[in-house]
Amino acid sequence: MTTDGAGAIPGHRTGERLGIFGGTFDPPHVGHLVTAVNVRHELSLDRVLLVVADQPWQKVGTRDISPAGDRFAMVEAAVGDVDGLEASRIELDRGGMSYTADTLSELLAADPTRRLHVILGSDAAVGLPGWERADEVRALSTIVVVERPGSGEGLPPPGWSWVRVEVPRLEVSSTDLRARVADGRPLDYLLSPAVIDTIERLGLYRAPVAR
Ligand code: ATP
Ligand code: MG
């Protein structure tokens, strides 16, 4: 179910099929994980990287963002040993504003045979044309959109080619989870136990948060 003609022909694989699922992941939740696992399966991706933004340019200045190292620790905990999912430090190591165009270029520079798939929820898809060097993102990757319930009918704008993948729809957000921690409400089944432990260990989200 791809538009890039990269169907798996035994013995004719032309390069690693890689998913790039970027986010602030503050914290990473069941909606992220269910998306990553199911897109990997549906598109026969070798790996899906959960790419932790160093400085998420869309959010900087809008609220306090947890330190990048803490967000990375949570994503590592979330991924655990799930087959084919990986926490990626690529944007942390580069530092500064995290632009997907730079990440795609870096991944292709390391291995030009890779086939990159940028995965995003419908709320993020509507904003694609406003991304830094959006044309590069479009040229270097297949855009994969999953519907995010509660976010309206967001789709990439006309002229963009993209693939839609159906995944179980979970109306979960990091914003709600930060508020849950601050209010002492239950986190179980919305976050993996290892992420709950990491939040407790790092003392994150205890102060009342902006919703
Ligand atoms: P916040 O509430 O802080 O914005 P978030 O839950 O939206 O957090 P992000 O880190 O902003 O999480 O999102 C990263 C990516 O994951 C985006 O492409 C977003 O659309 C997608 N995403 C987030 N939550 C879901 C969900 N429940 N279902 C599908 N996609 C999701
Ligand atoms: Mg978001």
Can you give keywords for this protein?
binds adenosine-5'-triphosphate; globular; 34% helix; alpha/beta; disordered N terminus; 8 helices; single chain; binds magnesium ion; 211 residues
Task: Name the shape in a single word.
Answer: globular
Q: What's the end-to-end separation, in Å?
A: 37 Å
Order of helices and strands: EHEHEHHEHHEEHH
Q: Determine the number of helices (DSSP H or I, runs of at least 4 residues).
A: 8
What low-confidence regions span 5 or more consecutive residues with pLDDT below 50?
1-9
Bound molecules: adenosine-5'-triphosphate, magnesium ion
- Strands across the major sheet, in which order? 3-2-1-4-5-6
Layout of helices and strands, plus pairs?
Layout: E1 17-23, H1 30-42, E2 47-52, H2 68-79, E3 85-88, H3 90-94, H4 100-110, E4 115-121, H5 122-125, H6 134-140, E5 141-146, E6 162-164, H7 174-183, H8 193-202
Parallel strand pairs: 1-2, 1-4, 2-3, 4-5, 5-6
Helix pairs in contact: 2-8, 4-6
Structure in words:
It contains 8 helices and 6 strands. It is α/β, with parallel strands linked by helices and 211 residues long. The protein has a 6-stranded parallel β-sheet with strand order 3-2-1-4-5-6, sandwiched between helices. It starts with 16 loop residues before the first strand and ends in a 9-residue tail after the last helix. Residues 1-9 have low confidence and may be disordered. It binds adenosine-5'-triphosphate and magnesium ion. The site of adenosine-5'-triphosphate has 18 residues, from helix 1, strand 4, helix 5 and helix 7.
